[in-house]
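To: structure subgroup
Subject: Chain for Friday's discussion

All,

I'm putting the inputs and outputs inline so they're searchable in the archive.
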Amino acid sequence: MKRHHPFRVGQRRVVVAVAAIALLAAGCSGRSGTESDSAGGSGSDSSSEVSADFGDLTDICQDGDASTATTQGVTAEQIEVGVFTDMGFTKNSEFVDAANVFTSWCNDNGGINGRTLVANTRDAKLMEPRQRMIEACREDFALVGGGAGLDALGVKERLGCLLPSFPAQAVQERSAGADLEISASPSKVPGYDNYTGFRTWTVNEAYPDSKQAVGLINGDSAITKAVQQMTLETLDAIGAKVVYNELYPTMGVSDWTPYAQAIKNNGVKGLIFMGSFDQLAKLEEVLTNMDYKLDWIDPNNNAYNAQFIELLGRSADFQNNLVDLSGVAPLESDEPAVEQLKELYAKYAPDAQITLPAMRAWSSWLLFAKSAAACGDDLTRTCLYETARGETAWTGGGLHAASDLQNPIPPQPCFNVEKATSEGWTTADFNPDSGLYRCDIPARKFTADFGAPMTLADVGKTMDDVQ
């Protein structure tokens, strides 16, 4: 992974700390671009036929005779959408890769009713969501399959220009659940803790001895401190006792020995780490060398990748790293939708990595395409939004547990747990009760006020203004 001068490294640690809850992976995937780049067209020889079906969804993309330029970003020939990313900062191109694979596949099957699908990359580079949103407001029909660490900085502009959004993930409280936004596979639902089921299972069922000895280590930033407070509230509500709660510099730590020693001295048995998985791997190396084994470690699902396994070394088997995929099918599963996604990546972007956020992005693209196709020639933002909102059991073709997009609150409670080993990720024994998932522990509503999503009324608009 490329190193940056100290100021930028510090910034990057802030983004990674946000990722602990928002699923904003900050790994390296070797693809770069700018906001003027487009991820569209075909990435391979389109002469080999590929089905327009995906999982249990049929005819996602199709030929047609669209003839009308209906609204901004929609002509008789094409549909332009925006894809938000921070890849100019994180060097992580997962959302752009997903856009490239989807649009290539879709256009090989005729596009949306014959309209070519074009994805405009909107690279916020961490600090520029507002600037990129202003550009999207001038050109795009909608936003699809992306995300930005500081997404709240652009939500006012998005609502002001009445731009629908189908994000792969929403991060900040003002953005997640804001008006004209539909999360196909919600990673964050305003006012609720989606990790309640996972945390309850961990301390009450799987490792009850750890319930009175939980530790937290969190990146030191204003944003992640809010996440820390949410976690503390849930732990308190389920009766867990926190015996160690520490911050670490977002730039990273050169020597994790003092932290490891404090974890041992306080008798921590279960550790929640909110930050960069490469830093956690260093901490675990020290703990393992000290021969101190915790009952479990939650590295957050930002760590659900092959790089983390490699960085762990012998700690992969000595420690017990568990991640909650929050109802998204594991890449190791034999689900038909997962297998098909792997095949499409192999065809259109063989060097790209399929990440958890990329799987959420794919579900957003599917929802957008299915809804846009249903609108026919008269494709408008109102039709798009209302059609997508009508889905009451959306699974992305089988990529994740069903979400009721018409009534997203309270959120679906399903979770599933993967365990890190030296051989890779494997499914933990978490007693699933609904296929791949466990859905019997409701998401918990926060009692504290952590902020509310922005509404159209906040910018002087209503749904009647949406065209």
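Points worth raising on Friday:
The domain at 31-42+54-191+335-410+455-465 is CATH 3.40.50.2300 (Rossmann fold).
The chain is about 35% helix and 10% strand.

D.
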